Amino acid sequence: MKTGQTISEKILSAKSGRDARAGDVVVCEVDCALGTDASVPMTIGYFEAMGGEHVVHPERLVFALDHYVPAPSRETTELHRRTREFAKRHGIHVWEVGDGIGHQLVVESGRATPGSLAVGADSHAVTYGALNAFATGIGSSDLAAIMISGRIWLRIPESIRITLSGALSDDVYPKDIALTIAKELGADGATYQALEFTGAAVASLDLEDRLVLSNLSVEMGAKNGIFPADISTFAYLGREYEPVAADSDAQYAREIAIDLDRITPQVALPHNVDRVVPIGEAAGTPVHMVYLGTCTGGRTRDFHQARDVLKAGGGPAPGVQVVVTPASRTVLEALTRDGTLADFISMGAVIVAPGCGSCCGTCGAIPGDGVNVISTANRNFKGRMGNSSAMIYLASPASCAAAAVRGSIADPREL
Amino acid sequence: MIEGRARVFGDDVNTDYIITSRRKRENIDPQYLRKFLFEELDPNFAATVQASDLIVAGKNFGCGSAMEVAVTAVVGAGIRAVIARSFSRTYYRNAVNNGLPPLMCDTSGIREGDRLAIEQASGMVVHNLTTGERVSAGPLPGIMLEILEAGGLVPYFRRYHDFRTL
Lengths: 415, 166
What we know:
The complex is a heterodimer. By secondary structure, chain A is of the alpha/beta class. Chain A contains 13 helices and 18 strands. Chain A folds into three domains: 9-155, Aconitase, domain 3, CATH 3.30.499; 159-262, Aconitase, domain 3 (2-Layer Sandwich), CATH 3.30.499; 267-414, Aconitase, domain 3. In chain A, the strands form five sheets. In chain A, strands 4-3-2-5-6 form a five-stranded parallel sheet, with helices on both faces. In chain A, strands 16-15-14-17-18 form a five-stranded parallel sheet. A four-stranded parallel sheet of chain A has the order 10-9-8-11, with helices on one face. In chain A, a hairpin with a 7-residue loop joins strand 12 and strand 13 (276-278). In chain A, helix 2 (40-49) packs across helix 5 (140-149). The interface between A and B is large, with 55 and 49 residues.
């Protein structure tokens, strides 16, 4: 007799019409697929080469112009033009330049829901796992195949069960949990596998907190990072859905227990996301640029946390550039309404239009040679922000703001 | 059978090291991008790559961004297989979808410049002609093998117009 199923096995069984288990390769019906200005132009090439004429479910597709915002060159404007033109011809919705990061917009718009299969031609599509969706990053050729067939081939992942207990202390944030898990698992510790979050402490994390953990799951190589659905999920989505829960006898490749009481502020050192140390060990490292934004740390609450630390500390230290890039227009509007944006402006921050910004060096502020950056982002690879001689540190919004106040990396609890 | 010269890289080679994001905003033509292959790790690589070369790496090859140019630029340079101890899953699926065999095996015995032959037995075998060592790369699941044998998703879809129901 077959054993029970993990959340990922259940969703992919439902989407493939087979009773599937980890290791099986199945073809699944896709509910939501995102393309971006960085992946759609290539997708169009694949679509045409495959002989594609008709998009089978245009309402399940959406394109976000988010990597080149605003277009920094003639070539990138052309990528936008081709994306818009293809979308118009096939009836696909486009999130325009300045609307925000596609992943944030998928979440805000309610396109990813509990039990759905939501993919994106961008690795951080894993973010929607916070909504109890099976969410994973795919390639441009996959997206073209989805346009033609509505389907995708997927290998069903083994799952690592991460049980969260306890409660976070003051000045400790979901980013610190994610960095702690990255350190524990390593950059390839979950390759081809799913992270399934569970435990009593899940209820204490609201949907925005969960987004941070799901978002960073790919930095451990995970295929997806999925949460159960509960009242926070339904509150965020504005209605109830049938949740997908794991069976009590589901099989896990590995079990990890995380006690939130023991989590402390962490920082990832250049140039790997799993080079994580307690932030005190990096204290004193001079910082020249502080980047607040991205699909990891660019939501309203992230800016509130950073603003509070900055204001309490009297603003950024001389010589520190603070760059603010809200994850979406909705976030930007909220920050405008509640005065947060005015606070950042008065403290000398540079405000960049909602989008991916500096995160992958495709637009926005590029750090100079030898510059140390501390960022709320999810990657710190050499050259990631567009200059391979810059050093990128990753931390929570509060820790980034603490570094801005001191002019060097600092423990936010000591400010 | 595929035969070629090993070009060896280390662990955790991310897609930005294979081809940086900023290059693809200029042009996504593989024949353009191949000029910048691995520029962050080995500025000399693009000038010395030969069509028969094989990429060899340690663990977690192709981690980071899912950008498919990190595969098409490799294919554009004429490379016919990538051999690594492990791959990031997006690189792995992009490789399959572009007809570039991603072979997973112990690569610790392979040195820069070794002559390698990829042989098909019950699974794939990487035969190091320089050292004589043979390492099994295991079999690929059905649909992945079908896509690879078709030459990637483009020829697969041209032939079948959809996924063949499993």
